[in-house]
Amino acid sequence: MSYKEQELSEALKHFRDLLTKYPDSNDNFFHFQSFIRKFLRVKTDKVTLPTSEIMAVIKYERPTIFRTIKGVANKDNTLYFLTHIDMDYDRAQERLNDLIEII
Hints:
This is Tetratricopeptide repeat protein. By secondary structure, the protein is mainly alpha-helical. The protein has one domain (about 5-100). Helices cover about 65% and strands about 0% of the residues. The chain has 6 helices and no strands. It is globular, with a radius of gyration of 13 Å.
């Protein structure tokens, strides 16, 4: 099964690029916060936006950045909600990899 979700595919590639380019530092918080805001606007037709999976990866692979996002989330209901989603990292990776294969 294959779905044409070009916008989502590009967003996931951008996410992988962020993880490669920016280490876990408060200085890089803005890049991830900006990505999250743009990611939430991605339109999909056939698949669910993997928001929980993205947040789990950030929480595990960029814990300093995640804590900074969580700190500013008190002023932003959307970020507050997203930083309180709890998902297993391995399961999140598995779902993202499966999704990348079908889009």
